[in-house]
TrEMBL record:
InterPro entries from the UniProt entry: Ser/Thr_Dehydratase, TrpB-like_PALP, TrpB-like_PALP_sf
GO biological process: isoleucine biosynthetic process; L-serine catabolic process; L-threonine catabolic process
Gene: ilvA
Entry GO MF terms: L-serine ammonia-lyase activity; pyridoxal phosphate binding; threonine deaminase activity
Coiled-coil region(s): none
The protein's name in its UniProt record: Serine/threonine dehydratase
UniProt keyword terms in alphabetical order: Lyase, Pyridoxal phosphate
Domain Tryptophan synthase beta chain-like PALP residues, every copy: 23-316
Length: 328
């Protein structure tokens, strides 16, 4: 029996999220705006799915709420726990608060302050560990065993994948003529959900991932057709703090192999340039991880299939004020 999520599961997640997650806008980027930024115009039209406009500033609310909302009353009473560098932490904290449950979040000690403060503001208890994503997971599992918390993984679970897939379902409804959708990839929740939602609905639409060159374990795994893990000292080099996961989730990798057409990698300079361009050319605010899909469209168009309309996911907008000042 296949482990892949079904279209019915994604549709059920969409209904579950109604009134909780925002149906975010899909903005068309005017070509004149790119000329204003002194960038060459691509051959395709660009549309930006602004998940930065979710209540927590990122798409992560979709998967987190979809999973927490399916817990039993007994499990909710015991509380939930997750391990995250920031955006999934806020998603779980938001979902737990909405459903009346305690939330404990295991975070790395290099988490951006803006994300840590937002997680605390949502009422979550924070536990700090080292840099490695494996350390965070081990600590969360230890505390779950000790206190009976329900573990809400950041990406490697069918409910998370189905929840994230609702973002792509909205894109298909908002732009039925889309030819290609680009999503960031780290652990693979968003990309696997995007791939499943798209290929099970409109299989002719291309699905591509984008990730930093300095944390390119997903691309290496995709090309090798086997799961490859990178050490934390490599993945933590990228400015994209939400994309520092050391490997794809096992279930996410299955979905990516089944439904994704390709992955491109982005340099650090391209990430920063894409952020500057988005700030200049639109009213949208991207965090580094949220800008990689835009960078793929701007700087790697030749690696992508020749298409007319490209939708990309601006996955998050929790940009540190200090970093934003350097981009002006």
């Amino acid at each position: 029996m296949s482990n892949l999520v079904t279209l019915d599961e994604i549709r059920a997640a969409k209904q579950r999220l109604a009134g909780v997650a925002v149906r975010t806008p899909l903005y068309r980027l005017e070509r004149a705006r790119l000329r204003m930024a002194k960038l060459p115009e691509p051959d395709f039209d660009i549309y930006i799915k602004a998940e930065s406009e979710q209540p927590i500033g990122s798409f992560k609310l979709r998967g987190a709420y979809n999973m927490v909302a399916q817990l039993s009353p007994e499990a909710l009473q015991r509380g939930v726990i997750t391990y995250s560098s920031g955006n999934h932490a806020q998603g779980v904290a938001y979902a737990a608060r909405a459903l009346g449950a305690k939330a404990v979040i295991v975070m790395p000690d290099n988490t951006p302050e803006i994300k840590m403060a937002a997680t605390k503001a949502l009422g979550a208890e924070i536990v700090i560990v080292g840099l490695a994503s494996s350390e965070r997971q081990a600590k969360a599992e230890e505390l779950a065993a000790q206190f009976g918390y329900a573990v809400i993984p950041p990406y490697d679970h069918p409910a998370i994948i189905a929840g994230q897939g609702t973002c792509a379902m909205e894109i298909l409804e908002q732009l039925p003529s889309v030819d290609l959708i680009i999503a960031p990839v780290s652990g693979g929740g968003l990309l696997s959900g995007t791939g499943a939602a798209v290929k099970l609905t409109m299989p002719s639409v291309q699905v591509w991932g984008a990730e930093p060159e300095l944390a390119a374990d997903a691309k290496e795994s995709f090309e090798a057709r086997r799961l490859i893990r990178w050490p934390a000292e490599k993945t933590t080099r990228t400015i994209g703090d939400g994309l520092r996961t050391q490997s794809l989730g096992a279930l996410n990798f299955e979905h990516i192999l089944a439904y994704v057409d390709g992955i491109v990698t982005i340099t650090e300079d391209e990430i920063l340039s894409a952020m500057r361009t988005m700030l200049l050319a639109t009213k949208l605010v991207p965090e580094p991880s949220g800008a990689v899909a835009f960078a793929a469209a701007l700087y790697h168009a030749r690696k992508l299939p020749r298409v007319r309309k490209v939708a990309l996911v601006l996955s998050g907008g929790n940009l540190e004020p200090g970093l934003r000042k350097t981009l002006n």
